[in-house]
Amino acid sequence: MAERKKHPVIICRCNDVTEEDIVNAIKMGFTDPEEIKRLLRVGMGPCQGRTCIPLMLRIVARETGKPISELKPPTARPPLIPVPVKVAKVGGNPLSE
Predict the structure, then answer these.
(1) Which of 10, 53, 54, 92 has a beta carbon 3.0–4.6 Å from 49's, enabling a disulfide?
(2) Is 61 among the domain residues?
(3) Do residues 33 and 74 touch, judged by C-beta distance below 8 A?
Protein backbone atom coordinates (compact mmCIF):
# COMPACT_ATOMS: atom_id res chain seq x y z
CA MET A 1 0.00 0.00 0.00
CA ALA A 2 1.24 3.50 -0.79
CA GLU A 3 2.43 5.53 2.17
CA ARG A 4 0.09 8.39 3.01
CA LYS A 5 1.66 11.79 3.07
CA LYS A 6 1.26 13.46 6.44
CA HIS A 7 0.03 17.05 6.20
CA PRO A 8 1.68 19.59 8.48
CA VAL A 9 -0.36 20.86 11.41
CA ILE A 10 -0.55 24.63 11.07
CA ILE A 11 -0.41 26.38 14.44
CA CYS A 12 -0.06 30.01 13.31
CA ARG A 13 -2.04 30.63 10.13
CA CYS A 14 -0.94 34.26 9.86
CA ASN A 15 2.75 33.34 9.64
CA ASP A 16 2.45 29.75 8.41
CA VAL A 17 4.14 28.17 11.45
CA THR A 18 3.66 24.44 11.89
CA GLU A 19 3.69 22.22 14.96
CA GLU A 20 6.88 20.68 13.59
CA ASP A 21 8.53 24.14 13.45
CA ILE A 22 7.75 24.69 17.14
CA VAL A 23 8.90 21.19 18.16
CA ASN A 24 12.16 21.68 16.23
CA ALA A 25 12.75 25.03 17.96
CA ILE A 26 12.25 23.36 21.34
CA LYS A 27 14.70 20.60 20.39
CA MET A 28 17.22 23.34 19.49
CA GLY A 29 16.90 24.67 23.05
CA PHE A 30 14.29 27.41 22.69
CA THR A 31 11.88 26.54 25.50
CA ASP A 32 10.68 29.99 26.54
CA PRO A 33 7.44 31.02 24.76
CA GLU A 34 8.82 34.55 24.22
CA GLU A 35 11.90 33.11 22.50
CA ILE A 36 9.77 30.90 20.27
CA LYS A 37 7.55 33.86 19.39
CA ARG A 38 10.56 35.94 18.35
CA LEU A 39 12.22 33.08 16.46
CA LEU A 40 9.18 31.86 14.53
CA ARG A 41 6.95 34.98 14.63
CA VAL A 42 4.12 33.01 16.25
CA GLY A 43 1.44 35.49 17.29
CA MET A 44 2.87 38.42 15.32
CA GLY A 45 0.32 38.34 12.52
CA PRO A 46 -2.97 40.23 12.19
CA CYS A 47 -4.72 38.00 14.76
CA GLN A 48 -2.06 38.91 17.38
CA GLY A 49 -1.92 35.32 18.66
CA ARG A 50 -5.53 34.81 19.68
CA THR A 51 -5.44 31.22 18.46
CA CYS A 52 -1.80 30.31 18.01
CA ILE A 53 -0.34 31.45 21.34
CA PRO A 54 -2.50 29.06 23.42
CA LEU A 55 -1.67 26.26 20.97
CA MET A 56 2.04 27.07 21.13
CA LEU A 57 1.91 27.06 24.94
CA ARG A 58 0.34 23.58 24.91
CA ILE A 59 3.08 22.29 22.62
CA VAL A 60 5.81 23.79 24.84
CA ALA A 61 4.19 22.24 27.92
CA ARG A 62 3.90 18.85 26.22
CA GLU A 63 7.46 18.84 24.88
CA THR A 64 9.16 20.18 28.02
CA GLY A 65 7.02 18.40 30.62
CA LYS A 66 6.27 21.70 32.37
CA PRO A 67 2.73 22.46 33.54
CA ILE A 68 1.11 25.03 31.29
CA SER A 69 0.43 27.15 34.40
CA GLU A 70 4.21 27.64 34.80
CA LEU A 71 4.65 29.00 31.27
CA LYS A 72 4.52 32.76 30.86
CA PRO A 73 2.66 33.79 27.70
CA PRO A 74 4.60 36.10 25.38
CA THR A 75 3.93 39.80 25.73
CA ALA A 76 1.44 41.45 23.40
CA ARG A 77 2.53 44.68 21.78
CA PRO A 78 0.05 47.21 20.42
CA PRO A 79 0.58 48.87 17.01
CA LEU A 80 3.04 51.79 16.95
CA ILE A 81 0.42 54.08 15.43
CA PRO A 82 -3.17 53.87 16.71
CA VAL A 83 -5.44 52.73 13.90
CA PRO A 84 -8.92 54.31 13.77
CA VAL A 85 -11.78 51.87 13.31
CA LYS A 86 -12.94 53.65 10.14
CA VAL A 87 -9.57 52.86 8.54
CA ALA A 88 -9.96 49.17 9.21
CA LYS A 89 -13.55 49.24 7.97
CA VAL A 90 -13.09 51.42 4.89
CA GLY A 91 -9.43 50.80 4.09
CA GLY A 92 -8.35 54.44 4.30
CA ASN A 93 -4.89 55.75 5.11
CA PRO A 94 -4.44 56.69 8.81
CA LEU A 95 -1.44 58.93 8.02
CA SER A 96 -3.37 61.24 5.70
CA GLU A 97 -6.24 61.97 8.03
Answers:
(1) 53
(2) yes
(3) yes
